[in-house]
Amino acid sequence: MSKGDALDPRGLIHESYRIDGITEGECRSIFLDWALAVEGDVTSIIDALLERHGGDHPDHPMTGVLREGRAPAGIPRRRGGWRSRDR
């Protein structure tokens, strides 16, 4: 795999798998940085990255973060404001 392909434009995900002792929090930060740089259907790109890296590293924190990244976003709920207070 070469750095800079369509799935991982700056090689961030690839490099995260090479870092010994990387934490889940660090992987989340890397994932966010990656997500801001990637273009296209993010879900299918995450699937391809999981196929590329996940099989060889099923217990790696980045694999878990990528799996979480596939989950659909929750429905936004209103929090706070005058409408949420008892009247």
Element string (H = helix, E = strand) = HHHH
**Regions with little confidence, pLDDT below 50 for 5+ residues:** none
Helix tally equals 4
Helix content: 40-55%
Describe the structure.
- With 87 residues, the protein is an all-alpha fold.
- Helices cover 51% and strands 0% of the residues.
- The protein is built from four helices and no strands.
- Helix 2 (24-37) crosses helix 4 (61-70) and helix 3 packs antiparallel against helix 4.
Relevant terms:
single chain; mainly alpha; 87 residues
In short:
This protein is 51% helix and 0% strand. It is built from four helices and no strands. The radius of gyration is 16 Å and the shape is elongated.
Fold blueprint:
Elements: H1 12-18, H2 24-37, H3 42-54, H4 61-70
Helix pairs in contact: 2-4, 3-4
